[in-house]
What does this fold into?
Amino acid sequence: MKKGLVMEGGGMRGLFTAGVTDVLLKAGIEFDGAIGVSAGATFGCNFKSRQQGRALRYNLRFCGDKRYCSFYSLIKTGDLFGVDFCYKQIPEILDVFDTEAYNLNPMDFYIVCTDVESGKPVYKLCNDGAESIKWMQASASLPLVARIVEIDGGKYLDGGVSDSIPVKYFESMGYTKNIVVLTQPQGYVKGKNPTMPLINLKYRKYPNLCKAARERHLVYNATLNYIAEQEKAGKMLVIRPPQKLPVGRTEKDPQKLQAAYDIGVSTAKARLEEIKEFIK
It folds into this structure.
């Protein structure tokens, strides 16, 4: 029986997840493997590198920097989140990502991306910290506001397009004791993508990607139903915010970012004994 940690994305809602994982890290809770999508990967990687507080720290520091996330960056580079700044300057210089600690941690770390040719999810095992950064970029590259990321001949975008909450994949890999961190509250239902006309136009050469984007809400809601069933049966422990988080996907207000993180911390602390008992 393998213990797994599954982390949904959601842009800056991912700071809720960062708050949860920092509590787990401080409590010394360990997993055999973790899997993250988009922000679940870019923030969740700090759990493997054991860098408590890092995700909150650099987001508070750079949330207002046009090099980090801005329409200036989108117009200048084609990426809303500046690739050089986010995936090179920050992890290598400004708030160093501890790749050595990441590599030494025996926990497997998977990153989910969407193959733009097939429209299918790709689950990449990333146990090398330096290599993982490119896959994190791909996983967090949102359609319409990011360029397609090419890795070893493949073309990738946001993992959430094809598998926002990869719990079934983790179960297929033998992870039967899973803690799932969601960034939407109980009762949330995803609606149709209102940007589909733009997606169909921009990615007309990739019909499978367009199909995945068009059906995303159906897959997402079906996964939520499955998670609810497993949670009710006691086979899965789900940590979700108690209410809608006070942040947008590209939130720039540091007080709101701090609030989302604090909600994650308080939610995890309130359930810490339950978490310990579940994975024991």
